[in-house]
Design goal:
The complex is a heterodimer of chains A (436) and B (252). By secondary structure, chain A is α/β, with parallel strands linked by helices. Helix content of chain A is 22%, strand content 39%. In chain A, the strands form 2 sheets. In chain A, strands 1, 2, 5, 6, 9, 11, 13, 15, 17, 19 and 21 form an 11-stranded mixed β-sheet that branches. In chain A, strands 3, 4, 7, 8, 10, 12, 14, 16, 18 and 20 form a 10-stranded mixed β-sheet that branches. In chain A, a hairpin with a 2-residue loop joins strand 1 and strand 2. Chain A starts with a helix and ends in a 5-residue tail after the last helix. With 252 residues, chain B is an alpha/beta fold. Chain B has a single domain, classed as P-loop containing nucleotide triphosphate hydrolases (Rossmann fold). In chain B, strand 4 and strand 5 form a beta hairpin. In chain B, helix 2 packs across helix 3, helix 4 crosses helix 6 and helix 6 runs parallel beside helix 7. The longest helix of chain B is centred in the middle third of the chain and has 15 residues. Chain B starts with a strand and ends with a helix. The chains are: A alpha/beta (436), B alpha/beta (252). At the A-B interface, helix 7 and helix 8 of A face helix 2, strand 7 and helix 3 of B.
Chain lengths: 436, 252
């Protein structure tokens, strides 16, 4: 049975087994969209450089509840971020949240199923925000995620400071017996005055293929602070399409860093809808690629209200036969006067077989704004290279030091020291240089 | 220590060095002077192994070894140090981290054990005091946002850390005021001993007031056209390079 049929079968099964809930119409709509839109091909404008449809030529299992997961504590320990002893830890196995393996330490943090959230005081929030990403991401994969939204989780960050206990999210795929399709889904609500730090990572166990279709929708209220760090360092046979959709509905501060180090085909959609005056966001990305890894970062900043500020910097180091795509859109709507929006994408191309496609796009409908964008693709600076070598540093080490120097200013935006050092360690090990 | 015979070099299609002959012995200070475009910096670059230059003829022996076949890092390992005219700014790489890497790679080349953190720190403290350079400067990204004087002091500090046998100073005085020149020269003088040598490349005589040369050579059109003692530098200062050009012209 091909994967599309597997998906359809599971959908029918769940719909008839679970009965009707407040999410049913949302799921049904989404499923219809999925049926119409299908898996995006390179003919889709937003998928020109990323051939995700080929992944679906293979057969994938899509029954996370039945795949008797053999994920052990040792497996989990092998991917935990340092500082986990103090952190909240949310574990997803094959896309499904595992309350057994998760640890909630903060009183201000609530994690329940989306379905359950529609039956309590969060009902209105869920119905208002769930699926909002589809206004920006109009493709079958986004719809596919929403068609199974009831399996997702609702995360509520209450007023108060939980920065001391960051929220670590681990997405584990058990691909020991079959190719696995998984769909972790989250709706995160960061309440007024709340402060929260998320750090998320992915790990595939087993030699079969993994395809993660993840959608994370985040709502940030007035005077709230959201930091979101994502580290992608999965196996070469692990693919993912990842949508993070952030709505700043109050004057708030958002800081995100996306670090992509390894994987098969990785697509990151990051949307920031700045829907309140004086909202501020900073988003950074680093992709450091080798082998045949393909990483595609599609970002959208939508300035809806006046006086917002956004800074975007993505840097790439692209080696071997790897490929990278950067597509950064900035919209400034006609009411969004006094917008400051900056975007930059810088790439180091280290091999003849590597490639980068970079495309900044500005669409400005207001007349009193400051926007800038720029992109560069280049090689290591020859003069700097000679300078290091003239002091006795070998060719290989000089190259590593220069790459590390290029990457480091992205890492500096990872504010939690332990997470930053963890990422720096991964990069330094790859380069064979010592940190510090 | 260094023996240059009939050295010829070009960059792209432009021939710059047209047969340089020069011998430097341990303990000596040589100055290379000359008008702009005479090939002074090219000579310094070729000795350090800058890849843009192609050696088209001649030979360079350093401590009995043909260095023209060696990579820049191997030359540094052998004991050649080039202080850059324009030290490169590298954001994201701290000076300390860089020097530690360089010192240990050079030690490895020389068959010595790498310094551990404690030994390295001790050496650094010692040289920092000698060169009057501050810790805060070394904690910053390499040369990034440094003043002209700070960059040149950092060059000499790196030289102190690497303990070369032959130090080549490429227009180290350019862009420096007299106080900065004095500090840099002072640093160089502290490092001088009977076993090492210094090659000072400069357009002006003033640096030579502080780093006093044993020999002065005048480079013109890619050749050494006149050699003498430190008095030659003073004469150049007084009479300008035109008198050299005229002399060379008469000979031709």
């Amino acid at each position: 049975m091909n994967t599309i049929e597997t998906i359809k079968e599971r959908y029918q099964q769940l719909q008839s087994n679970n009965g009707s809930s407040a999410l049913t119409p949302i799921e049904q709509n989404a499923f219809n969209s999925f049926t119409t839109l299908g898996i995006p091909t390179v003919k889709h404008e937003e998928w020109k450089y990323t051939r995700i449809s080929s992944v679906f030529n293979k057969e994938y299992a899509f029954n996370p509840e039945n795949l008797s997961s053999s994920i052990s504590q040792t497996d989990l320990d092998s991917i935990r971020f340092p500082g986990y002893e103090e952190a909240n830890e949310l574990v997803f196995i094959n896309g499904l949240y595992s309350p057994q393996l998760s640890v909630i330490r903060s009183e201000n943090l609530t994690v329940i199923s989306l379905e359950e959230a529609t039956r309590n005081e969060h009902r209105e929030l869920v119905l208002q925000h769930l699926g909002h990403s589809s206004k920006y991401i109009k493709d079958g994969l986004n719809a596919l995620s929403t068609a199974f939204a009831a399996e997702g989780v609702f995360i509520h960050v209450n007023k108060g400071d939980i920065v001391e206990h960051p929220v670590y999210i681990y997405n584990i795929v058990d691909a020991r017996t079959a190719n696995v399709l998984s769909q972790p889904r989250m709706l995160i609500y960061v309440a007024q005055n709340a402060q929260v730090i998320f750090a998320e990572t992915y790990a595939t166990f087993g030699a079969a293929e993994s395809f993660i279709n993840q959608v994370t929708e985040i709502v940030v209220e007035k005077d709230a602070l959201l930091e979101f760090y994502r580290i992608q360092n999965d196996a070469a046979h692990a693919n993912q399409v990842n949508t993070t959709h952030i709505r700043q509905i109050g004057k708030s501060l958002v800081n995100t860093v996306t670090v992509s180090l390894d994987g098969g085909i990785v697509r990151n959609n990051l949307n920031i809808a700045m829907e309140a005056e004086y909202a501020e966001s900073h988003f950074y990305g680093l992709y450091f690629l080798k082998g045949n890894t393909h990483v595609d970062n599609h970002t959208v900043v939508d300035n809806v209200k006046p006086h917002c500020e956004s800074n975007e910097l993505y840097k790439g180091v692209v080696d071997d036969s790897s490929t990278a795509v950067f597509n950064g859109k900035i919209f400034v709507q006609k009411d969004a006067q006094k917008t400051n929006a900056y975007q930059s994408n810088k790439n180091l191309l280290l091999s003849e077989d590597a490639a980068v496609n970079t495309k900044p796009q500005l669409e400005i409908f207001a007349d009193d704004v400051k926007c800038s964008h720029g992109c560069t693709v280049g090689q290591l600076d020859e003069e700097a290279f000679f300078y290091l070598r003239s002091r006795g540093v070998s060719e290989r080490t000089a190259k590593s030091l220069l790459i590390h120097a290029f990457a480091i200013d992205i890492l500096e935006h990872i504010k939690p020291e332990k997470v930053r050092e963890y990422v720096d360690q991964l990069i330094s090990e790859r380069l064979g240089v010592e940190v510090g | 220590m260094l023996s240059i015979k009939n050295l010829q070099a070009r960059i792209e299609e432009k021939q710059i060095l047209n047969g340089i002959n020069l011998d430097i012995k341990a303990g000596e200070v040589h100055a290379i002077m000359g008008p702009n475009g005479s090939g002074k910096s090219t000579l310094a670059s070729v000795l350090a192994g800058r890849p843009e230059y192609e050696v088209t003829g001649g030979a360079v022996e350093f401590l009995g070894k043909d260095i023209l076949e060696l990579s820049p890092e191997e030359r540094a390992g052998e004991g050649i140090f080039l202080a850059f005219q324009y030290p490169v700014e590298i954001p994201g790489l701290t000076t300390t981290n860089f020097i530690k890497t360089a010192v240990n790679e050079v030690r490895k080349y020389r068959g010595l054990e790498p310094y551990d953190a404690v030994q390295f720190l001790k050496l650094m403290k010692e040289k920092m005091a000698l060169m009057e350079i501050s810790q805060s400067l070394l904690s910053r990204s390499l040369n990034e946002g440094f003043s002209g004087g700070e960059k040149k002091r950092n060059e000499i500090f790196q030289m102190a850390m690497l303990e070369p046998k032959l130090a080549i100073l490429d227009e180290t005085d350019s862009g420096l005021d007299i106080d900065a020149i004095r500090i840099v020269a002072n640093g160089v003088n502290k490092l001088r001993n009977k076993d090492n040598a210094v090659l000072v490349v400069t357009h002006y005589q003033r640096l030579l007031d502080y780093i006093v040369p044993d020999f002065v050579h005048v480079l013109y059109n890619g050749r050494i056209v006149k050699s003498g003692t430190k008095e030659l530098a003073l004469e150049l200062e007084e009479r300008g390079y035109d008198f050299i050009k005229n002399e060379v012209g008469q000979e031709a």
